[in-house]
Amino acid sequence: MKKILLSLLVIIISGILAACSNDTNSSQEVISNYPETIKQEIEELPEDFRKSLVVPSKLPESYSVINFSYTSEPMNDPTGNIINTTFIYEGENTGYHLVLNTMYGDADFANEKRGKTVTLDNGIKAKVIDEYAIRWVDENENHQELSFIVPDLNEAKVTKDDLVEVANSMK
Fold first, then answer.
1. pTM of this prediction?
2. What is the dihedral of CA 145, 151, 156, 159, to 10 degrees?
3. Is the pLDDT at 122 greater than 70, yes or no?
4. pLDDT at 105
5. How confident is the model at residue 157 (pLDDT cuts 50, 70, 90)?
6. What is the pLDDT of residue 127?
7. First vs last Cα of the chain: how many Å apart?
8. CB-hemisphere CA count at 13 Å for 156?
9. 105 dihedral zone (left: phi>0; alpha: psi -120 to 50; beta)
10. Which residue, among 137, 161, 125, 148, has the nearest Cα to 54 in the 3D structure?
11. H helices within 1-103, ranges in order?
12. In terms of Cα–Cα distance, which of 68, 123, 116, 115 is closest to 90?
């Protein structure tokens, strides 16, 4: 009986140690499933920075990533100071795009006072702007903005609730 309990204790402690040493977050898992061209662009960035990238794990149906870009100082230097990253997602056969912009460092949004305030699942306050964009400052002081780009606003099939749901999936 003691051997069984000791074996069980070793298994539990090993599991805890393995979980604690695992540096993969849910965003890294999502990014690992992105197309190779996107992953290659991300892999140009320093490892510590890549680990800090946050992307949505839930997108509207039929959406997938189609582009990634960054802005740095000096310009186009992946080892320089990264100022902004942009992920573009596209809805299959919709012509709609979901754009995730993340600004790092000392940044502010224009028109910050406009919009309706909502509370995300993690307690952070966000602003919904014109029903097609949501902005917030995350726990790392990064400025996040998700916006839907739709060809015809009158036929838009996306809502403020869709934006909030996508924002809530970013962990």
1. 0.81
2. 0
3. yes
4. 81
5. confident
6. 92
7. 42
8. 18
9. left
10. 137
11. 2-21, 26-31, 36-43, 47-52
12. 68
Instruction: Give the per-residue pLDDT at 159.
Output: 82
Give the domains, in start order, of the chain with CATH numbers: 25-168 (3.30.200.100)
Strands 143-149 and 116-119: unpaired
Question: Which structure tokens are listed for 168?
Answer: 């809530």
Q: Which residues of 137-159 are buried (b: 16+ CB within 10 A; e: fewer)?
A: bbeeebbbbbbbebeeeeeeebe
Cα–Cα separations (whole angstroms), residue 169 to 24, 27, 52, 54, 154: 16, 9, 15, 10, 27
Question: Please, are residues 52 and 140 in contact by the beta-carbon 8 Å criterion?
Answer: yes
CA dist., res. 19 & res. 35, Å (int): 27
